[in-house]
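User: For a benchmark we're assembling, each entry needs the component sequences followed by a predicted structure for the full assembly. Here are entry 17's components. Please fill in the structure.
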Amino acid sequence: SAVISQKPSRDICQRGTSLTIQCQVDSQVTMMFWYRQQPGQSLTLIATANQGSEATYESGFVIDKFPISRPNLTFSTLTVSNMSPEDSSIYLCSVDPTGGNIQYFGAGTRLSVL
Amino acid sequence: AQSVTQPDIHITVSEGASLELRCNYSYGATPYLFWYVQSPGQGLQLLLKYFSGDTLVQGIKGFEAEFKRSQSSFNLRKPSVHWSDAAEYFCAVGGNTGTASKLTFGTGTRLQVTL
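Assistant: Structure for entry 17:
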């Protein structure tokens, strides 16, 4: 498994601003994933972030809205840009530490946009 | 496209009673199947997984799940529920698609335990 730390754990932001969420892993991992969990909904994959390559975004998510950085094998950031109330969600990062198709999740960032 | 259906949005059981949470999946090949639990304010914790082999898999916290290919199901069970099991349970399907293991989650089942 892996220990995953996300910061911040929660935030309240104003419309039109941006928030950067950090994900730190206690070991080097190739694959990291970012998910969104809207209120009362399931998890939806935003993008896959592999170190050394551009993030791969799922249908309905674009880089301009959710830019991702992956500077090394233990760290990634997700930015939620130009936020609106519809962006209020829990954002979670996950990792597949062994490449064995098993993902482990951080505790998430609970975002509220006013 | 892969998909997961959890037909029960909310289930209430008494402490000590048995539990079964339903999960049906759609996947074009042999699926990788998972159950995760999310306690209030927490991230997701992996309960168990099925990749191949024995269709009855054991997980943590006394949970087990059975893979039934003919029914495209992967139901989660526990013989005796504890109050601490109250949480949201998510079934997920994935597969080995190249170097990425994309997971598709069901909508979740919220479990309430009465004392």
